[in-house]
Amino acid sequence: MSLYDARRRRNAMALTLSVLAVVFGLGWLMLILGTLLWDGFSGLSLEVLTKMTPPPGSAGGLLNPIIGSLILTVLGILIGTPLGILAGTYMAEYGRHTKLTLAVGFINDILLSAPSIVIGLFVYEIMVMPMGHFSAWAGSVALAVIVVPVVVRTTTDMLNLVPDRLREAATALGMPRWLVIRHVAYRAARAGIATGVLLAIARISGETAPLLFTALNNQFFSTNLNAPMSSLPVTIFQFALSPYEDWQRLAWSGALIITIAVLALSIVARLLTAPRKLR
User: What is the 3-class SS of 225-274, one letter each residue?
Assistant: First the structure.
């Protein structure tokens, strides 16, 4: 066998294994999505979006957990996003090559991959135990802790991509550093930073474990931030484990709603980054 034939055979073998790996992965993904669409659409109706969670055997919907999830997600983003952007700004603009930045970057990477249940236990110890009860505030803080490393990483990366020539040109015009960051660096990186925030929203939209230890759940409609609050992921978890078929049907519908919301956010994130790629 010639050297050329041997290389062709190895190339064909590697290509075949790669295609099989892609088919294996996509096959499971399509199976999961197909099951979700089949069971989710069968129970989806206007009542799911307009009625409260019912007792077993009664008609109802998921209005209170949907509103609770929106409140928790908005609060988590409002708390975590400014912290993440400011920390990312320091790492990219003020302390780019310092030891503190290297240490913070290393810790941020660990926090980025930390199991969310550990974050939930941490917030449980520092908020729920001293307060003596579960609350929406504790759930929001737990979600904010998940938001921060995502925003820090995207902000740092996007600001590092801004050419230093732009900063030097603005500085040569007499602009102070904070104005250079605000009007030059942020303006050039705003699409990437916004994409990071959207990805953080998508990440916390389906989190269940940290909310089990912080916001818990509420069978009734409540906007009291100092009390347990219903959320869609926790409701799905509880309804899916129940022996009642109507609750299981609502759990599938809730999972479909979360999937559609995350898909919409991902599409918006892609659209925000598209103009940058075309330049």
Answer: CCCCCCCHHHHHHHHHHCCCHHHHHHHHHHHHHHHHHHHHHHHHHHHHHH
